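So, who can interpret the following?
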Amino acid sequence: MMSKSISALYEIECYILKGINRHFERKALNAYFRSITHLGGAAFAILAALLMILLFKGSLRDVAIASALSLTISHIPVQICKKLYPRKRPYLMVHGTKYPINPLKDHSFPSGHTTAIFSIVIPFILYTPTLAFFLIPIALSVGTSRIYLGLHYPSDVLAGMCLGTLTGIVSYYQFIPLL
């Protein structure tokens, strides 16, 4: 049985989820969030990381390598957490949650898409801080898309942001000097 404080936090989380997910039927938002969410998907993230390594030269290529390493490393704790904390996705638990056809069936905590996008963009932001004005809104949009689509709770996304950011920072500062 959940304690009162955990239950209250869950209620707040469901309130935020419903507030974002309630716009699911809006065509423009649907098109935007259904598209941008793929930036955090495995296929796009891996392909983007590999293309950046192949196309960039010099120190920017080193940042791309750190970004790819961050993406790789970040998914170890994601998979461990999904096994240790088998949280069901919101569309299965929260009545009235709208979701796309053929939704993901694995566990929701933490958000792998959010982890991926933050793990990729953080090394580039550390290298060129002005990129934050462009990359942070994109990364936050990917995270928001996961809630909008009814696939993740806000805490799943927050955990993904933290994991991706942490691995991005560690990869940048630990691996760039080695390259």
Observations:
- The chain has a mean pLDDT of 93.
- The radius of gyration is 17 Å.
- The CA atoms of residues 122 and 169 lie 7 Å apart.
